Amino acid sequence: MAKYVVTDATLSINGDDVTSAVARAELTQTAAEVDVTDFGSGGNTEVVGGLKSGSLSFDIHQDYGVGAVSKILSEDLIGTIGTFVVTPNGATPSAENPSFTVECLINTVTFVSGSVGDLATASYTFPTTGGITIATA
Amino acid sequence: MTIAGIRQGLATNLGTISGLRTAAEIPDQASPPIAIVSLQSIDYHNAFQNGMTNFIFTVQVIVGRAAEKEAQRRLDQYAEPSGATSVKSAIESDKSLNGNCQTLIVDSMPSVGSLQMNDQTYLAAEFSVQVYV
Question: Counting beta carbons within 10 angstroms of the beta carbon of residue B20, is it exposed (0 to 12), middle (13 to 18) or buried (19 or more)?
Fold first, then answer.
C-alpha cells in the first residue's frame, strides 16, 4: 500500500451514492478510558479500554435537485438509523481499499447553510451505533 | 460540461447586453466595445471522484478609447450590479450556462485600467467569474 492523496473516496447513505457531492469524510472509533487506578498502581493512573464509540463526519455540497444529497439526507431521516458506507480510495473494496460500513444515528439535518457568495455546503457529524464492519472484497 | 461550453455559455449570456460584442476566446483583433472570455485558473478535486471542479474565468470588457468620456460612461453602465447593461447581471442571467455548469457567480470586478491595443489606449475592466462544474 502506497501513500495516497485523497481524491477518490466514496460515501453512500442507505444505498444512495452521494460521493460526487462530498468534499470531506472522516470515520473514527474510540474506546472509553476506564480508570482502574488503585493502591497498587504505584502512584500512576491506570486505565483500561471501555465501551467503544464512533462518529462519522463529512462535508457536502448542498443541492436540492432530484436525487441530490439534500434530498437523500431529508427531514424524513431525522431520528432514524442510517447505513453509511465509506471507502477511502475508490469504489471497489480491496485489501488496500477496505470499505467501512457503519450505522449512525441521523440526529440532525441541515436544510440551509452558507454565506453570501460562497458555495452552499453543510457539515455533518453523526454518532455511530454498533460496530464498524470492514470489508476487503 | 466542457471548458469550451462554459466559454460559449458566458459569451452567450454577455450577448444579451445590447451593443456589446462578445468573444468566447481571445480574438486576433478586438473591436470595442467587446467582452472577451478567458480562463484564469482551475481548482480540481473539490469533491470526491471529480464531483466538482471550480473554474475562474475572467471577462475583460474593452469599452473604447480611454480618452473618450463616452467610454468612461459606458464602463460605468457595464459595471452596474444590476440592469440591462450590467455585465454581472448578464452573466448571472443563466447560472447553468445552458447546462454547462452547476452554478456560477460574478464575485468581483478586480481591475479597471488602460489597455494598449493597435497603438491605441483603451479603457478596460475585468470581471472575475467563478464557475462550479
Answer: buried
